[in-house]
Amino acid sequence: MNPRSVDRVLDVIGGLLLPPRCLLCGHAGQRPCLDLCADCESALPESREMLRSGPFPLDRCYARYAYGFPVDHLVHSLKYRGQLATGRVLGALLASGAEALGLHLDVDCLVPVPLHPFRHADRGFNQATEIACRVGRSVGRPVLAGALSRTRDTRPQVGLRVVDRRDNLRDAFRADARLRGRRVVVVDDVCTTGSTLAAAAAAMREAGAASVDAWCVARADPV
Questions:
Q1: Which of 17, 166, 174, 216 could form a disulfide with 63 if both were Cys (CB 3.0 to 4.6 A apart)?
Q2: Do 162 and 196 contact (CB within 8 A), yes or no?
Q3: For 18, what's the count of Cα atoms within 13 Å in the CB-facing half-sphere?
Q4: For 210, how many CA atoms within 13 A lie in the half-sphere containing its CB?
């Protein structure tokens, strides 16, 4: 039995032992183990521009949803309240959208956007890693969480102008040799201007990545 088949069996067993419950309305979730009901899923705001050419050095940038209610609520529940079950839901939704478009077919591995070690220690987890692990499990691709690191603790991007976002992230990432020759997807929760993803992609290109796409749960309009 291949790893994806094993994961599906484990999902079924897990759903039987702990039936899924919708994180938004509290009703029964979707079998085998999605903690979101079909009605609430259908109400999520799809991005009007799901797939686009990414800002160089990104090849493509995919965001499944618009960053509006209730997607923003789910992201905040994960990011600021530590509700890790939400990360599994967001990862499953991102994976199903990417698979429907066939985006996983030319991908070798997934790499979550890292937090600086100080911020990671303060939060206790990385929301991008929580999402990426569920995506990787769903699409059958490895997650190389340590292949990209943040070399300095940058200012929060919220509220910065586009040019300031780019300056803030200059030389902020370092990638290792495991990415050489690989077709990589960098995973994050929300994309706004794409500055963070582009800076991460630049580091991975420098390390020899053959291509770099970005997958995000949601796309937000710059403030």
A1: 216
A2: no
A3: 8
A4: 7
- Orientation of helix 71-79 relative to helix 127-139, angle to 10°: 110
Q: What is the mean pLDDT of the chain?
A: 89
Rounded CA-CA distance 133/123 in Å is 18
CATH number, span 45-219 = 3.40.50.2020
Short-list 40, 200, 221, 217, CA closest to 111: 200
Instruction: Tell the residue number behind the tokens 């949803």, with chain if given.
Output: 65
Q: Is a pLDDT exceeding 90 seen at residue 68?
A: yes
Can you give the residue ranges of every domain in the chain? 1-43, 45-219
Cα 62 to Cα 25, 26, 97, 141, 186, distances in angstroms: 27, 29, 9, 17, 10
Using one digit for the tens of pLDDT, what is the confidence trace for 110-158?
999 999 888 899 999 999 999 999 999 999 999 999 999 998 766 555 5
Q: What pLDDT sits at residue 48?
A: 82
Phi and psi for 43 in degrees, rounded to 5?
Answer: -85, -5
Q: Tell me the pLDDT band of 38, cut-offs 50, 70 and 90.
A: very high
* Residue type, position 147, single letter: A
Measured CA to CA, the distance from residue 93 to residue 90 in angstroms comes to: 5
The torsion of the CA quartet 104, 108, 114, 117, rounded to 10 degrees, works out to 150
